[in-house]
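seq:
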Amino acid sequence: MQIGAVFPAEELGDDVAAIRDWVQAAEDLGYQHILVFEHLVGFRDAPNPSAVGPVTPDTRMHEPLTFLAFLAGITRHIELVTGVIVLPMRQTVLLAKQAAEIDALSGGRLRLGVGVGAGIPRNE
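struct:
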């Protein structure tokens, strides 16, 4: 069995020391991967809030590729995973080049999730 961890972006914010300590602890504990969520924009009023609440413009989420490049430099073997990145919201060729660079510099540890739209549930 392989077990990974979801990076707690909201809880750790921009505290670089806390981020480093958390990520290195996850690696030292033997987790297989660290998953970083993608969300470029938030909603002031979510169409259908989840149990954990809506993603608003105030919700802290790191830009996943830049953040995973940072994590690649402070880890040794843990896999680096994105949540689903919505391709139409990004330049596809640039995304591919960035992902290839992270994968190469991390020794093949990037797992990239992509999709074509944000699955926003609707109340009907």
